[in-house]
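check these tokens.
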Amino acid sequence: MKHRNLGNTGIQVSEVGFGAWQLGNEKDWGKMTEDEAIHLVRNAMDSGCTFFDTAPNYGAGKSEELLGKAFKGKRDQVVISSKCGHHSNDEQNFEPEKLMSSVEDSLRRLHTDYLDSLLLHNPPFSTLNGNSPQFEVLEKLKKQGKNRAYGASVDTGVEMDELLNKTNSQVIEVMFNLFHQEPAAAIQSAERQGVGVITKVPLDSGWLTGKYDRNSRFSGIRSRWSAEEIERRGRLVKQVRRILGNDISMAQAALQFILSYQEVSTIIPGAKDIQQFNQNVAASEGSLSIEMINELKDIWAEEIKDSKLPW
């Protein structure tokens, strides 16, 4: 596994991290026993994965609990990034007192006294200011030793620019993938400012694995797509496959596309079993050609840029 710097934080992370939304999250990911979850996390650690991304509302706090059990006696071997603002009861509340208590609960569930990275979880745009009460909380917690670095998890380059221009964020998490390339310029700005970049939703909620097409139908959280959006995504997947050919794993190629941006610190695909995790990790073993990368950039520029593809 290759490693990269998390901006200027002094923290090194595996370039393929572990998105832990699925742990304990039967509603969105299907059933996984506690033993299976802990085994999956420890397998990830044995494979050289050091970066783990979680949040209080993932599995109603269960994700953090399972990570805490898996990391027992090995805290110094992992980099933990968690969030605040979306609470374990699914409430969204960014009031300072709520954020403080949320972080204390996360530390308890994770069996640790500090987080390596603490992020506001998709906060209101109005809070993306270093003088906001929310960022005052993050700074206060850092001074208390509760986090080594802080920032926010957001969805767009516009939000990233606001963070870069108006806060002292050391880490930013942003949605970025083949079908969502809008943050690319902001990611490059972050690197120039020494800010670490975590990229979330790297496989576009499964579309960039190649397992869905225009005829796919969904339940749970994936039922958010309309028939027209499914049809459109199906066409885009076919274009990606045409560029890649039939001998390349689409999932690995999608992750390698993101890793081609040296400004990115780490990617956080999810995995519900060891086979999926191993497929994700394999992205660290190779790279795409410049020609292929440029063709994949063109798909977004020509087909998506001016008519945004809903998440």
About this structure: Residues 227-244 form the longest helix (18 residues). The radius of gyration is 18 Å.
